[in-house]
Amino acid sequence: MLTNTFTIQNPTGLHARPATLFVQKATSFPCEVNVIKGTKKINGKSIMGLMTLGAKMGEQITLEITGEQAEQAMEELGKLLMSVHG
Amino acid sequence: MLQKGIAAAPGIVIGRAVVQKDEMVRYERRILDQDEVAPELGRFRESVRAADLELEQVKEKVRHEIGEEEARIFEAHQLFLQDPEFIGAIEEKLESERVNAEAALEEVRDSFVAIFESLDDEYMRERAADLRDVSQRLLKNLLGIHDQLQADFAEPVVLVVHDLTPSDTAQLDREKVKGFATNIGGRTSHSAIMARTMEIPAVVGMSDITEQLQTGDLVIVDGLEGEVHIRPDEAVVAAYEAKQQAYWKQKEDWARLVHEESVTADGHRVELAANIGNPQDAVQAVENGAEGIGLFRTEFLYMGREQFPTEEEQFEAYKAVAETMGKDRPVVIRTLDIGGDKELSYLDLPKELNPFLGYRAIRLCLDRVELFKTQLRALLRASIYGNIKIMYPMIATIAELRRANQILDEVKAELRSQSILFNDHLEVGIMIEVPAAAMIADQLAKEADFFSIGTNDLIQYVMAADRMNEQVAYLYDPYHPAILRLVNQVIKAAHQEGKWVGMCGEMAGESLAIPILLGLGLDEFSMSATSVLRARHLLRKLDYKSLQETAQHVLTLESGEEIRAFIKEEILNKL
Asked: Could you tell me which residues come within 8 angstroms of residue A6 by beta carbon, excluding any fewer than 6 positions away?
């Protein structure tokens, strides 16, 4: 299992468009992706989970990735979280 | 018969109604036998695939006919269909409770809708509507109901329905559907936004319009006033035909003015700017021909959340507006105007007896210096991306202005020591909304780079009348001589020192006020974006030279009524 923590850079947070992109990316990998904020942990392939997590810009979230292609998934999802646009 | 609703998309349409009542989706909740579970699961998965395929088609159609932004709504719907939490919960319910797919779907949908709607976030509450829309599509697929809405018509029609989901709106035949009226919905609902993009007149929130009209009835939808005329007689139709013609002509006239200068018939140039409340509004401002942002209210950054916005967050928002407006168009950003009646849950302020006269705006910022500094840092850092100007609200004394500028200088020094770039020459002005500031405008003008008159608050302070209180509403009059004389005094004082003066209250966009303000020498008029082209159209017909005399005469009149009547008869009616 890989874990890594990121600070969200997008001004709209992990919301709307950025959330859509995240879920699309996560779904393209076979591995399991969990997103953790504080005490909440959700399935990173669930748009509803991600939206109800309500992660805002400047907040820290942790990705917990298990399974096939975990490293590549961590890299690409991390990039999305760190990007300002989208 | 006339019925009022909410104006969702401008324009007027006169035509025959097609009324479509929502076909009630009926099914029974059923407990399955054990051997029925697997086939039911298969049936459910098949309907998910079918709905996904439909969405793919709708998305492409919308992308092609309306736009990328609107098409994304359906991309989100597709994600709901792929959502392991949503679809997984339905499948689990189906299997563990052995209920039919329709019941499992609706029960799971309701629990998610309840979660979305309970969130303190407008965006998330709107997503509940998306979830309902996509669930309805799924349900109709399960029940084998194919047509969501009759969308093909032989003749041009006015569509009258309970509600239009994004899916419905996207399927409308734009050649035939000339307008619509709905029972529910608001100005920011998807259907309203899409109607504006598609440029078809719409009135929403009519409560029972589907009961008032029958297919074939003559109907007028007035998307300008938010009114629907049910079976109008000939005289009403004739009046609306004239109104429709006038609207089309006006629209053409105004559209031509988007890139024109704001200059009077005799060549006097002023700036027509827009008031905005968030960075997205700036795009609309540019589309409507605004030459700048005269007031960017920064409160949106602070409201509806649990802690203060970070410097980064603010920086991004200010930078976004500066970049949208470009290097030339000025952006006046007002520092935080919170406190008093505008509360923040995370800023624990004592209840006040008289919030409008209390601890708010610059008074609060000068007391909570760290809060103020964070905003100033973000503003300064964003200042290199465009033509940003800073404006302090509620200044009443020269000491307040000096103290605010002193804090600004401290922030500048910090940035310099960290080698962070900013525009050292950015203009710093003040809002004139406290009568005391208007009275000492000559002194303030020596130290402020510009003034912007905030009439909304200035009027209620000068007249000692709360504009929300209907019993004293007659006193809340922008045309009262006391107001106009103060405005005159402020403009003169600023010009004496070579400074410019703007106005960012509602008044700046009013057709009756523009000739007076122009005559008094106002340099910048900041209004809602949708008023800019109307104002420019008027401005280009006015004569600055003669209005200077007119304005001085107006200052001698004795009441607001007299002044309004004078401008109407002597100026506007003669154009």
From this structure: A60, A61, A62, A63, A78, A81, A82
What domains, with CATH codes, occur in chain B? 12-19+149-254 (3.50.30.10), 24-143 (1.10.274.10), 256-574 (3.20.20.60)
Pick the residue from chain A with its C-alpha nearest to B120. Answer: A54
Q: How many domains does chain A have?
A: 1
pLDDT digits (tens, 9 = 90+) for B335-365: 999 876 677 778 878 788 888 899 999 999 9
Give residues 40 to 79 of A whose Cβ lies within 8 Å of B.
Answer: 42-43, 45-49, 51-52, 54, 56-58
Name every residue in B having a CB less than 8 A away from some CB of A: 72, 75-76, 79-80, 82-86, 112, 115-116, 119, 121, 123-124, 127, 131, 305, 310, 312-313, 316-317, 320
- Which chain A residue is nearest to residue B316, measuring alpha carbons? A11
pTM reported for the whole predicted model:
0.63
**Is the CB of A33 inside 8 Å of chain B's CB atoms?**
no
Query: What range defines the domain where residue A70 resides?
Result: 2-82
> What b-and-e string marks burial along B181-208, b requiring 16 or more CB atoms within 10 Å of the CB?
bbbbbeeebbbbbbbbebebbbbbbbee
Q: Which residues of chain B have pLDDT under 50?
A: none
Q: How confident is the model at residue A86 (pLDDT cuts 50, 70, 90)?
A: very low
Amino acid at B174: R
